[in-house]
Amino acid sequence: MTMTMLINGHEASSLPVGDRGLHYADGLFETIALRHGQPLLWQRHLQRLSTDCQRLGMPVPNHLLLREELDRIAGNEARAVAKIIVTRGIADSDYRPSPQSPVTRIVQRLPWPMYPPDVRRGVAVCWCKTRLAHQGQLAGIKQLNRVEQVLARAEWLDEYAEGLMRDSDGWVIEGTKTNLFVVCADGTLVTPDLSQSGVAGVMRAQILDSMASLGLNCRVQPVSVGLIDSAQELFLTNSLIGLWPIKQLEARPYVVGQISQKIQAALQAAGCVA
């Protein structure tokens, strides 16, 4: 049987109960699309992991070691998912982390998710009641504590593909597992400011860096519900889905427009999506 998980380089399927990831959600993760065993947007994932480790004061895992471990479990399926989890390691009996404790590395392969059919033609989404808290020190980081997203995702069954989340002040931040882009009436794109909450996705970064070459303008700014209501197009992004246009937000229909389709095609041509 092909192995699907390594913990600190060894085939395993369980963690010591003292790991700080279990006690305090003290760690980070990356979710990576695999195409025939090759990780997409690999350098962007590594850069975010390194930056987020530094922001949390954690040692940065060796990049070559991570890639070696990923290659060992990647397989050769047409599409699969790699998940890398880094925790601060074994817990002391206190919140204070030990600077001598080595991090725990978990590298895992998972099946490709079952997504709704015809997502390129648009998906239906809803508003979530659960709000995101402000925490500037953690904003943007893909940290292990996802309880807000868990509560938000419990608000619907399968009638929607995703839910949009607002912060405690009512600003629209992101989906439960996606970043959000708004196409305004003048063709300008806007994506929410993530300086106080949310996760700065690698696909979001890829799109922001590609705007100039596509002849598009994009601003990062606070996004109100009113801006959503007046939008010409809306779309969602992450490293697995690539880009999903939104065709309906609860009762409000949206056009799957030319800009969403243009960016979608560019991501496909650049080999960014599985």
Describe the structure.
The structure is a single chain. With 274 residues, this protein is of the alpha+beta class. The chain folds into 2 domains: 5-111, D-amino Acid Aminotransferase, Chain A, domain 1 (2-Layer Sandwich), CATH 3.30.470; 119-269, D-amino Acid Aminotransferase, Chain A, domain 2 (Alpha-Beta Barrel). Helix content is 23%, strand content 27%. The protein has 7 helices and 15 strands. Strands 7, 8, 9, 10, 11, 12, 13, 14 and 15 form a 9-stranded mixed beta sheet that branches. It has a 6-stranded antiparallel beta sheet with strand order 2-1-6-5-3-4. The longest helix has 14 residues, at 42-55. The protein starts with a strand and ends in a 5-residue tail after the last helix. The relative contact order is 0.15. The mean pLDDT is 95.
Strand content is 25-35%
User: Mind telling me the CATH class of the largest domain?
Assistant: Alpha Beta
Tell me the helix content: 10-25%
CATH architecture name of the largest domain? Alpha-Beta Barrel
Supply the helix-strand structural class.
alpha+beta
Distance between the termini: 24 Å
- Mean pLDDT equals 95
Tally of alpha and pi helices: 7
Which segments are poorly predicted (pLDDT under 50) over 5 or more consecutive residues?
A: none
What is the 3D shape?
globular
Compute the number of strand runs.
15
CATH superfamily of the largest domain: D-amino Acid Aminotransferase, subunit A, domain 2
Number of domains: 2
CATH topology of the largest domain: D-amino Acid Aminotransferase, Chain A, domain 2
